[in-house]
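Structure ticket #2291
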Amino acid sequence: MRNVPVDEVDGIDRAVLAIGTDYPPGHLLPRHRHRRAQLLYGAVGIMQVETADGSWTVPPRRAVLIPPETDHQVLMDAVSTRSLYLESSAVPWFPARCRVVDVSPLLRELLLAAVDIPPEYDRHGRDGALVQLILHEIRNLAPLPFDLPLPARTDLRELCEAFQAAPNVREAPSGWAAQLGVSARTFNRMFLAGTGLSFQQWRQRACVLHAIRLLSAGRTVTRVAAELAYDTPAAFSTMFRKQTGTAPSTFQPR
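Resolution: structure written out below.
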């Protein structure tokens, strides 16, 4: 199925529904939820998923697992998606929190093929076998550290979201503490309680995820390093590799 709202087909008696959808640049899917679990894969383009407790950056050719009944919004930047909507009974191992995952070449081809099978596919035929293979493949997907926890406290979350939009590796926690009218010690305790990370850890991860978005849009490593205020491209690349396990060039358009 292609460009079909899931609500129109959600009642079909099949464990897996596959839908392909194309989105223009800068398209925002406002906060919503699905009855089924969802695997949201971007064949091209980059996505940012946000829930009450965090945001997830999804580079091209990766996917995000979204649990059922989870309120979320998705910012699409010229994305062509392949979504699987999964009955909970078919994926009892599904994570309770969103998770970005790597997608193997085999699963990539399976996802591309799945959107072309009939919605009421023959469970015992070739299409049913394809669906079963997909379920086997997604159970063992490798998680990727592309999530950024966000605090529930409104004023602190606003600062976090503003930083996400224009991160700077040199930003100091003292400035945030002053804006919130608290001591540096109180701020550090508050930040750790709200995000599960120290300010420095969170700042670095926010910089990495922003860098992935810029690199995926075609920016050079040198330009991204400068935008994040790193002294040199080499210093940025070292940090990036340490955080993601791969070089920045991995995320540039092929």
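Closing remark: The radius of gyration is 20 Å.
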